[in-house]
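step: validate -> pass
step: tokenize input -> pass
step: predict -> running
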Amino acid sequence: MSQDSVVSQDGAPYGRTPASALPPCHVPGPDGPWEEVQERIERTGRAVVHTTWGQWLTAALLDPALRTLLGRDWPRYRQHPAPAGRLILAVSRTVLKHTAAQVLQVPPGRLDLAYLPGGRPVLRGLGADLQVSLAHTDELIVVGVSRVGPLGVDAEPAGRRISLPALCEHVCTAEEARLLEALPEQERTRTFLRLWTLKEAYAKALGHGMRRRFTAIGFEWDTAGRARLAGDTAGRWAFATHLVDGRYLVSEAYRHDEAEAEAETEAETGAETGTGDEGHHRGRAHHRAAAPPQPQGPRAPFAQDAPDRPPVVPPQGLQPQRPRASFVQDAPDAPDGPAVVPPQGPPAPVVKDAPDAPDAPSGVRASYGGRVLDFSQRRGGPPR
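step: predict -> pass
step: emit ->
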């Protein structure tokens, strides 16, 4: 397998290059240029951006809104033990949010970035339907965004020195290991790195991260040298590997259905498929259904209303006033009902709806509205 079977010299995958597998866009700073990214989103629903953390470092650290931009990553940024790690964390999240903001046409500080248990970054609230993926190695930062389905990106230095026999046991299937053994030694490492980044990108697209066993993921190569997932006879997943800046391998993995594949073909030939995102991705709704109204429980009655009279609701903004009770000794015909005890405060009358309550000394019991009021525990007797 020659070097051309991995990537071409211009960074595009070898063989026919679909519109969605063009080389990543280079964006050297927050001010862009972003036109190419927006054009790819309009054509294919996906885009991959690459840059270096050094190019974004000054703009990121001097941004007075850095704390707002980092959001929930701010404590992690402040507590990171390594200075270089702090800078890479700040810049990589800044690049990701600026890229997503260009797609969504909103200020980057309004986006809320969170992480799934496997470490996959996700946008919450605004932009939650936009898939994002992040990778960085050495100086390189790569961000992938997709409106049309799962997407994953990964990167490694093309000249990285590795212990191939040890890593093969954890990364390659038996068929892939046999393929590597048949290659010349100088091509073996590059092909292995391509396999490794492809599997990382695929695992990220699935949201599995490092929890996915790479030996359970197999790749094959078509006659043009392009990678395809073993057993994916429907071609639901597409893959590409690019040589970026002449020294980094960047792999992307994304899933599409037949309608999207047709839209990509039409985009490549310049055919009109409609206006806006609806034309490129027919049958996909990029909005959320309105939440159904929440059922409301029964209104809690004010005080303990007698069953034979309507509830008393005080006017809004005014404190309820209890009518003055006329004290009688007993009310033997008071209806049954639960006892209501005031939750706190000074000793208060306990309302007892007990029709058969025994007699009590005058001034201790009284009734109001068909209820018995018991003042036997009140110091000094009933209120005057």
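step: describe -> The longest helix spans residues 83-104.
step: cleanup -> pass
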